[in-house]
Structure formats: structure tokens, C-alpha cells
Amino acid sequence: MKTAHAGAALAFVLAVAPASAQNVKITPVGSHPGELCANDRATIFEDPTGVRILYDAGHTVTGADDARLGAIHVVLLSHAHGDHIGDQKLKAVGAGECANSERLPASPNSTTAEIAAAKNAAIAMTSDMGTFIGRKVQNIHGKPVAVCPQTAGVTSVPVAAPCRSNTHLGGAFIAKTPHAAQGVEITIVFASHANNVPLSLLSEAQRTNLGADNTSIVLGPPTGYVVKFTNGLVAYLSGDTGIHTEMKTVVNEFHKANLAVLNLGPSAGTVTSGAYAMNELVRPASVILTHPNEAVTEGGKLRTTSRTAALIKQLKPTPHLAISGRTMEFDGKGKCVAGC
Ligand SMILES: [Zn+2]
Ligand SMILES: [Zn+2]
């Protein structure tokens, strides 16, 4: 009997271990641990092969030395608005209120550039934004940032020095760890939004000229991403966007996204348009809700009076709150199998 039990236990381990090893781990890095707070955007994705991606560093990291970051191989930036590029940084983890975290200036370089420089990361974003961030990384590092080395269209990570993807809308950047059979494919997709850079991140001459007109420069188009992980998970990172037709034609029909990371906030949409975008256009299995511009949780529980709660009531895909510090694991079909 003893042997039979041991055998059964071993069979169980063999059946379970490879499955969990195939999950993509997704960890929001927000202002207040255990909550979903107003300024939360930053998210870390870890492929089963070990590729680690930071999406929109924003205002809720304390800087490149934030202990929650760990190794970062690829840095994504959807657009240059301050809450994404990171013209400010979190004063300390948990500082301030969930509705208004306490921040310090991150000028002249931004949290995105500080992290790309410190982590020796590949900068995967449109060329317009990549060269801008690249120049800031050069300001920190002292060396120009080159286009990422590729072999047969694939960049091996970690890269030896910060580099940039040199991609535009529709282009893909593939990051692969040395012993993996396959890489993670990151495609830049359309977003219906704006892409002006905060004045505080411009050089003195530009800031003076443009500041007089209360305007700034635009770093090409704003974007979202579709990230194809090696386990089959296809994640649509919406960026800030209004509802648009490519959610159906490109994100759903072409890329077949099975997970969406949806940016909320009233400036680019309504509860009704967000629900329609998810239910009828993107149609993923699951939706991670982030960028709420309101304190969504209190004591880790959903505030029933929140705008986010109103959206959840209308969502057909399974909703998950981007709770800071909680690692969610997703299988290849877009289903959360642990941590949700
Ligand atoms: Zn924006
Ligand atoms: Zn935003």
C-alpha cells in the first residue's frame, strides 16, 4: 500500500508540475500593496521561458531600484503621457492615499528610461518613443542606444546593453531566452488616443519654447500591444484608448487575443463603451482591469460604488482586478488558474 501511495503521489506531481510551469505570471506593481489604486498602471509579465516584460512603468514604481521589479528584459511603453512614461515616481511603496498616491518628480529622465538603463533592457516601442527614451538612457549610461541585435528576427535576452526595437505600428519584436524553443512576440497595435510628452521631460530649449504656448511635442502615434507568450496566451494591452474598430479586426480576428489588460479611466471611454469593447469586439476569455483613476478597492475588496464595479457588472469575459503585488497565473487559453 505504501508503494502504491507513493506512486500515486508521484503521478500527481508529474501531472501538475508541467502544467503550472507553463503559466504566464502577471504581477501588477501599483502604489498600495493588496489594492487597486487610482494611479496603478505598471505590470510585469513573466513568460514560462523566463522572459520578463515591464509594461508602462508610470508613477507607481519608486524608481529603477524598486525591489518589486527584479530582472526586466523588455520595457514596453504604450504612449508618452506622464502617467505611463513616468514623469513622476512613487515616494515610497504605500505612500499617500489609494486615490492619490504620493509622488516625486522623475524628470529629466522618466521612470521608463531609468529602469531600461538600470536593467539593461530592450526598449520595445514605436521608434518615435524608442529614440526619445533611448536618448535618456544615453544620458544616464553615457553610451548611445543601438537597435537590438537580432538573429533570424529574434533578440536573445537578457541583452548585453540597453537597446531599442526600431518597430512601428504593426511591427513585432521577438524576445527569447537562450535555451527556449520559442520567443515571446510583441506586436505594436493601434490605440485611439494622444501622445504628447510632458514638458518636464523635454530639454530646456524646447520646454521654454513650447511652454509659452502650453503645448508639447507628439512622439508619433499612441499604441497598445499584443503579446504572444510561449504557452499560447495572447494578451492585448489596450493602452489608453477610445473604442475602435481594430479591436475587432486586428486584435480579435487577426491576433485572436484571449486575455485583455484594459485601461479604465473616464477620459477615453465610458463604462458602456468599455463593456462593448470587451464583450463584442475583443472578446477575450478574461480581462484584467487597470488604470482606474479611482480607488477601486479598500482593504483589498471591491468598492461597490466604484465606476470599475459598474463595468464589471456588464462584462461577459471573466474580470480580474490588477491588485498590486498579487501574481496571477494564466494558461494558454486566457484563463486565470492561480492567484485570482
Ligand atoms: Zn494617456
Ligand atoms: Zn493614462
Low-confidence stretches: 6-19
Q: What is the makeup of the main sheet? A: 9 strands, mixed
Strand order of the largest sheet: 10-12-9-4-3-2-1-22-23
Helix content: 10-25%
CATH class: Alpha Beta
Unique bound compounds = zinc ion
- Rg is 20 Å
**CATH superfamily grouping:** Ribonuclease Z/Hydroxyacylglutathione hydrolase-like
Query: What is the structural class?
Result: alpha/beta
The CATH architecture comes to 4-Layer Sandwich
Task: Please summarize what this structure is.
This protein has one domain (23-338): Metallo-beta-lactamase, Chain A (4-Layer Sandwich).
In words, what does this structure look like?
There is one protein chain. The chain has eight helices and 23 strands. The radius of gyration is 20 Å and the shape is globular. A hairpin with a 5-residue loop joins strand 22 (328-330) and strand 23 (336-338). A nine-stranded mixed β-sheet has the order 10-12-9-4-3-2-1-22-23, with helices on one face. Strands 11-13-14-15-16-17-18-21 form an eight-stranded mixed β-sheet, with helices on one face. It has a two-stranded antiparallel ribbon with strand order 5-8. It has a single domain, classed as Metallo-beta-lactamase, Chain A, CATH 3.60.15.10. Helix content is 25%, strand content 24%. It has 340 residues and is of the alpha/beta class. The structure holds zinc ion (2 copies). One zinc ion (ZN) is lined by residues 79, 81, 193, 240. The site of one zinc ion has 4 residues, from loops.
